[in-house]
Write a structure and sequence with these properties.
There is one protein chain. β3, α4 and β4 form a beta-alpha-beta unit. By secondary structure, the protein is α/β, with parallel strands linked by helices. The protein is globular. The protein starts with a helix and ends in a 7-residue tail after the last strand. The chain folds into two domains: about 120 residues, Rossmann fold, CATH 3.40.50; about 35 residues, no CATH class. Helices cover about 30% and strands about 20% of the residues.
Length: about 160
Amino acid sequence: MGVKLARAFGAHVVLFTTSPSKVTDGLRLGAHEVVVSTDAAAMAKHASSLDFILDCVSAQHDLNAYLSLLRLDGTLCLVGVPEQPLAVHAFSVIMPRRNFSGSCIGGIAETQEMLEFCAKHGIVSDIELIPIQKINEAWDRMIKQDVRYRFVIDMASLKQA
């Protein structure tokens, strides 16, 4: 959703992923560029060049690698919640004058504004609809990172045996 929203706001969108298999999806979702973050040369190409990074990753990752992509006064906003604390090196933010922030969901007014913006721009979530009977299979696939991109349970399937 972050890619779709950023694109609708008119931003030049660079999507970072650890998975080469998600490059095509990233472009389909609206990214102008997709960078495989394990490719050091591809990451170096973007050093000190970005104004803003929305970090949605809920797994352990090196924040400093992404902070190094920000230009002077750039901001990395963390919305993902990894299980363990993430290390931020002081010099990743002090010397290059970069900002590290976090954000939580907005209130009712902000949510309504976002929904109206999405409706106006035809932005919808990419989901895979599953019956409740496949919840264990969905969990296993989630653990294997085999989800594109959200599972949604079909509540009508609750009535089925």
